[in-house]
Each structure stands twice: as C-alpha cells, then as structure tokens.
C-alpha cells in the first residue's frame, strides 16, 4: 500500500501505523518495554525509549512526516522540547538567530533564559517579513525562526519569501506550524527546512496530553533528535498512543475547525460591540491574500476585541457556558482566554498595547461543536455583559 499516492484523510488514518500482524489488532499496540532484545547492528532495530526508536513513538512521528511531506519526523515530550531541540541543533555559543517578535511566550522565555545563558545571540524582529528578518541577519546568524499564523493576532508571514531569504543567506529556516496544523499549511513544500509543532494542540486534538513534533530532512531531524536524546525529551509510550489516535482524525477535525471558525469570525465581524476580529479567513484581515496563497484552510484560531471596559469583558468571559475559559488551544472543545493575563501577562502594559494586545482582546480556539451553538453562547455572553 503506497500511502504517498493516497489522500490526506487516508494518510491521517493510516500513515505510520505499526500493526502487529501476528495478533491482528487494527491499532498500533502500546509497547511498554524499556529494553529490547536487538543486536547493535540491526537496521532500524527497536532499542530504548529515550533513543526515540520504539514502535509506539515511530507511529505518530511517521504520520506527521506523511502529512508534512517530510523525509522524517520525531515526536517529543512537548512543543517546547521540539522548539528548544530544534534551535539547539543548529546554534552554538557565539551564533545568532533571527526571529519574529510576536512569538509564543514560552519560546520567548526560552530565548531569554537559555540562549542568553549559552552565549547565543538573537534578534526579535517586530512586524516581521522576509525583508525585515534579512535586515537583522549578521555574519554569525545561522537560523531564522517564525510562527505563522501568530499568537494571538493571527499575523501571517510569507513562508516562501522567508525560505528564499534563508537559502540565499545560508540559514536554517524553522517555522512553528502549531496554529495552522499540517492540514492547513505545508511549510516544507514552501521551502522551509523544519516544521515544528506543539502537538499538544491540533495534532493530538483532545486537550489531554503534552507533546511536540519536528518534521524535516533526515540529516537535520537527526541533529534535533540527538539534542532531544541528550536532554531526555522523550514522549512516553502511552502518550504516543493517544497522539497517534488523535492524529487519525486530524484532517476531519481541521475541516470542522476551519468551517466553524469562518462562521464565528463572520458573525463577530458583523456584530456590534466588537472593535476588531483577527482571522485570516476574513477579507478584511491584512494577511488574507497571503493566507489564501500559502494556507489550505484558515484554521480554528482567532482573536477579537470587545468594545467595552475590562470589567465588562470579564463579565462576558464569566457568562460563557459552552465555551470554556482556559489557556491552550486546538482541542475539539472551544476555549477562550484573555492574552493580556495569560500569554502576554509578563509583557509591560504599554508594550502589550503597542503590539495590539489590549485588555479586552479575547483569543478563541474554535472547537468542533456546532457553529450555531458556539455563536449562541458568544451572543448570550455579550448580552449579559452589555456589549453592543
Ligand atoms: C504556538 C505554540 N508553540 C509552542 C507551544 C508550546 O507547546 P507545549 O506547551 O506543548 O510545550 C505553544 C503552547 O501553547 C504554542 O501555542
């Protein structure tokens, strides 16, 4: 069976599986052994979980590779494991990396706390595009790192342009593809070297585990894997099983996330009491044309600004019943939060306001419920808060 010739739904369901034909079960078994009876020189032998070479770990990783169009992939213990090992695979003391400024907060903390300690320089570029990122490249720069669509304002960065710039300047290009998922965006086909995920979000899709994945060419992914092995960033076998199970419905779920988010965004854009809706599927979004070119779907993430006081915004959040107030994203259940007090809580208020993250900005991870029910919940909470 040549899955590479088959469609994305088929690859979501079947790629990577490690069926045990002797038993005949139709799912990859959970292999619990932490030691394997393999001789050293056996090609592809299963050996030891921390070396990331047991079948339960291989299954979700290979599924991601099939969906990203990558030579290979690995599954690790968290999105931050994937991000930190990817950066450290190419950066050494004295090197430099260029990144966009509006990154996930944990990535930002990693740069400040760890790269600084290791003597690795970095430049964070506001309003990043290929030209502005290139302007920050120095002779010590080894990598460029972007995240698109970005959190929480869903800014879209031209991946083809950044990849071309990286090739010209001899940099390794990396993108955090978490918000889009490999169903909605295929960065490797646009010229990127590494596509990185917090699998905690869409890939697993059920808000019940932490994991991270990296997809790309074997030589580079092997370098990431070496760091992950040395830092012990293994994903345990039970979570690998859950991750693979979740990924089987990825393309199904993303189709629903895309449809629901589009419906919610259009409803919000037409509703009084909303001063901005940030969703790349709206023609008014500054990245809409670019998103149409480089994305295959606009995704389930959005943010919107309530035109009210912070107190009324709090009342709105408290009044939600179907939509749960929680951090994280990408699960089948709709989640909302205020970035001002979650992802951007540590940023000084003036800086936060300057980048567009106001006190009443709501980030919404639109789930797989019925769009009409999500909209009805938002409407009744706005009414309860007097937002009109
Ligand atoms: C865009 C993005 N990248 C990376 C991460 C980090 O992932 P994890 O929490 O799985 O380490 C997150 C977590 O929220 C995220 O939103």
Automatic annotation (TrEMBL):
GO process terms (BP): cysteine biosynthetic process via cystathionine; methionine biosynthetic process; transsulfuration
Positions of modified residues (N6-(pyridoxal phosphate)lysine): 201
Cofactor: pyridoxal 5'-phosphate
Gene3D superfamilies named in the record: Aspartate Aminotransferase, domain 1 (3.90.1150.10), Type I PLP-dependent aspartate aminotransferase-like (Major domain) (3.40.640.10)
SUPFAM superfamilies: PLP-dependent transferases
InterPro entries: Cys/Met-Metab_PyrdxlP-dep_enz (IPR000277), Cys_met_metab_PP (IPR054542), PyrdxlP-dep_Trfase (IPR015424), PyrdxlP-dep_Trfase_major (IPR015421), PyrdxlP-dep_Trfase_small (IPR015422)
GO molecular-function terms, A-Z: cystathionine gamma-lyase activity; pyridoxal phosphate binding
Tagged with keyword Ligase: no
Record's keyword terms, sorted: Pyridoxal phosphate
Pfam families xrefs: Cys_Met_Meta_PP
UniProt keyword annotation of Phosphoprotein present: no
GO cellular component: cytoplasm
Family: Belongs to the trans-sulfuration enzymes family.
Database matches in PANTHER family: CYSTATHIONINE GAMMA-LYASE-RELATED (PTHR11808:SF85), TRANS-SULFURATION ENZYME FAMILY MEMBER (PTHR11808)
Annotated protein name in UniProt: Cystathionine gamma-synthase
Provenance organism: Solidesulfovibrio magneticus (strain ATCC 700980 / DSM 13731 / RS-1) (Desulfovibrio magneticus)
Source organism phylogeny: Bacteria, Pseudomonadati, Thermodesulfobacteriota, Desulfovibrionia, Desulfovibrionales
Gene that this polypeptide is encoded by: metB
């Amino acid at each position: 069976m040549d899955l590479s010739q088959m469609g994305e739904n088929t690859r979501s369901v079947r790629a990577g599986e490690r069926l045990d034909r002797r038993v005949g079960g139709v799912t990859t078994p959970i292999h619990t052994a932490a030691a394997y009876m393999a001789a050293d020189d056996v090609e592809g032998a299963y050996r030891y979980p921390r070396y990331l070479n047991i079948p339960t770990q291989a299954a979700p990783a290979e599924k991601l590779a099939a969906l990203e169009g990558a030579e290979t992939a690995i599954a690790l213990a968290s999105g931050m494991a994937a991000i930190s090992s990817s950066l450290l695979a190419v950066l050494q003391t004295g090197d430099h990396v260029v990144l966009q400024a509006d990154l996930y907060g944990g990535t930002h903390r990693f740069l400040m706390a760890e790269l600084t300690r290791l003597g690795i320089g970095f430049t964070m570029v506001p309003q990043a595009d290929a030209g502005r990122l290139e302007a920050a490249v120095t002779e010590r720069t080894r990598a460029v790192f972007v995240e698109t669509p970005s959190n929480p304002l869903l800014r879209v960065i031209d991946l083809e342009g950044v990849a071309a710039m990286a090739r010209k300047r001899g940099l390794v290009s990396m993108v955090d593809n978490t918000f889009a998922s490999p169903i909605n965006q295929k960065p490797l086909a646009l010229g990127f070297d590494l596509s990185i995920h917090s699998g905690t979000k869409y890939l697993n899709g059920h808000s019940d585990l932490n994991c991270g994945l990296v997809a790309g060419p074997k030589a580079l992914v092997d370098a990431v894997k070496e760091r992950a092995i040395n830092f012990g960033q293994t994903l345990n076998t039970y979570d690998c099983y859950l991750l693979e199970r979740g990924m089987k419905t990825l393309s199904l779920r993303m189709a629903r996330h895309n449809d629901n988010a589009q419906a919610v965004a259009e409803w919000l854009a037409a509703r009084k009491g909303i001063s901005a809706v940030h969703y790349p599927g709206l023609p008014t979004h500054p990245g809409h044309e670019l998103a149409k070119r480089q994305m295959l779907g606009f995704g389930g993430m959005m943010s919107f600004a309530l035109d009210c006081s912070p107190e009324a915004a709090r009342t709105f959040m408290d009044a939600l019943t179907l939509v749960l107030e929680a951090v994280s994203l990408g699960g089948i259940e709709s989640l909302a939060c205020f970035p001002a007090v979650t992802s951007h809580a540590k940023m000084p208020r003036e800086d936060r306001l300057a980048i567009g993250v106001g006190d009443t900005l709501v980030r919404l991870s639109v789930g797989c419920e019925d769009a009409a029910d999500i909209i009805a919940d938002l409407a009744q909470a706005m009414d309860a808060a007097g937002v009109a």
